[in-house]
Amino acid sequence: MSYPQHSTGMTSHPEIAEMRERLERTASSGSAIVVEGLILLAGVYAAISPWVVHFALQRNITVNNLIVGITVALIGFGLTLAPERMFRLAWVLTPLGVWLLISPWVVTATHGARSAIVWNNCWLGAIVAVLGLAAMGLTVGVARRGPR
User: Fold this and answer.
1) 97-110 per-position pLDDT tens digit
2) How far, in Å, CA of 73 to CA of 92, rounded?
C-alpha cells in the first residue's frame, strides 16, 4: 500500500517556529552572551593551563587538558555562532567539567598529581561544570516561562 506524500515539511509547523523564536530570544539575552564568553575562555584556559601552571612535561595530563580545553572552547565558540543548534550540546560541558575535576588522579601515570595540577583542574572542572549547567538552564528557563 502506498501512503500519500505531503510536500509540507516540519519547517512550517507552528511549534517549530515558536521554538526557534524562543531559542533566538535566549541566545540574544545578556546572560547567554556572558555564559558563552565564559565557556570559551574556560576552554582556552584549560587548553593552555599545562604551560601556565608548569606541568607541560607530564605528557598524559597535558594532552588531556589540551583536548578537553579545545573541546570546551569549540562548544563555547559554537554557542556563540549558532546557538539555536548548539544549545542541544550544552549538556556535554557538565561531564567534561567532571572529567577535568577527576582527571589528575585518573590520567597521571602514578595516579597522583602535584598539588598545582589538582588545584588547577579541580577549580577549572567545577567552573566548566557550572557553566554547562548555566547554559542548559538558559533554555530550560525560557521554555518554562514561555514567550513574553
Assistant:
1) 999 999 999 998 78
2) 12
Report the distance separating Cα 17 and Cα 148, nearest Å: 15
C-alpha 20/C-alpha 117 separation (Å) is 42
Start-to-end CA distance of the chain, whole Å, equals 47
- Please compute the mean of the pLDDT values over residues 100-129 and round it to a whole number: 92
- Cell numbers for 122: 579541580
Cα dihedral 28, 30, 31, 33 in deg (nearest 10)? 60
Distance CA 106, CA 30 (A): 37
Please report the pLDDT score of residue 1 as a whole number: 45
Other residues' Cβ atoms within 10 Å of the Cβ of residue 106: 12
CB atoms within 10 A of CB 79: 25
Residue 49 main-chain phi, psi, to 5 deg: -60, -30
* CA–CA gap between residue 82 and residue 89 (Å, rounded): 11
Residue 32's pLDDT band (boundaries 50, 70, 90)? Answer: confident
